[in-house]
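Exercise 7 asks you to align residues with tokens for two separate proteins.
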Amino acid sequence: MKKIILISLIFISLISNSQENVTNKKWILKTNLISFVDVFSFPTVQISVERKLSKNISINLETGWQVYNLGLNDYKLDTLSIKNRGFKVNIEGRFYVSSFIKDIDFKGNNPFLGIQFFYRGYNYGNSVYYIIDPNYDKPYNYNQENNIKIEKFVDEYEVEKSIYGLNLTAGMQLKLYKNLIWEPYVGAGIMDWKVKNFNRSFKNNKIETTTCNHCFFTDFSEDSGLKLSLTYGFRVGYKL
């Protein structure tokens, strides 16, 4: 991850130097308020910096670290001792379109379109309840009607997720007061979802229920692959 950040900073520096004759340096320091309570992935303290390269073009670098839990995957596992940890990084190129739309007065606000490359890394412990039943492929009521006793088991395991992807984004940079701005945005794209499990012994065709409240694509290795990516956020920033 340090390499990703370093390459990103070098990339921004090179582009900034190449654009020095085009425009004066303009920086915006921002934080994403949604990231503090993100239940779709994991909560992070997320900071971003935007560098205006010209009137219409900028680049935005954003990083976030998980420094606390919301209790969604914070289980007291008996056999494993795993600390939740997560990291996010986004690199987004933006094009501001207000100067190309002559029929609308945006009153100093700036709509934008962007291309965002992102990475998410997350490690945590989880547990799952499962059953071993030769009639599991039949409806569950079948087992109840025939008074077949089903024994439940619990398995505790570690999950490691690595997610790379690309989103097309759209948003609006709105002026709050003097140098203060706020920035709602949405985006959609595709991501490569890689999941690894450690210390896992069950097969998921035997699962009855799981304690995982925090993994909308599930957290099993066999569910890795390409998936739809959706993003949204609400940043507040200050122009430097």
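Second protein for Exercise 7:
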Amino acid sequence: MPNQNLAHFIKIAAICVLAAALNHLIFPVVVLGFRMPLFMDTVFTAAVTFYAGLIPGLAAALLTWVIGFTIKDGIINPFIICSIAEVILIFLLKPSDVRTRGLLSEEKKSFIFATTLASLMVLYITVCITISTLGGLIDYIFYTEFPNTKPDYSAEDAFKEWFSDSPIPMLILNILSRVPVNLVDRFIVIFGGYFISRGMVKMESKLFPKP
């Protein structure tokens, strides 16, 4: 039993490290390579949370932050709070883990698919609203109220520039500018992360079949 627990811990730890590394690799490939104005920095954190739960998800988020902190020579990224909030929401609202054996009827398969899709949609909308609001609030406090310089030009900055002459308060503008980005970005994160996690479950069942 102790050996099994140690092997499980090592497996989850390795998955968290790999997820953190892939979170940073996906940015230059998708965002810079394909010139998509998205964040795309938590897809594999979401996958780990769907697959292994809250603590591994938080570990993947923190490892991603640590790698980013190291790469950017100690520049603090306050948006780790958004990643933590996203992990918690995924853990609380993720679809039930349905692992059945044997053949299922078409009605049963349709029901499972429909309930899973509905759960993912609720999760997606909740994350989109929460991360847009929280991200806008952090941006306003960290880069408007305090004299910090934003290290990167991110997707929502383009939307803020379009409305720079409008009478909309900066806090509201920070939140609203994230909504169109997160509508696409969080869809990829939630649905992509979920299906990656399902692939991980299938791979695990093939590599380590249960009697």
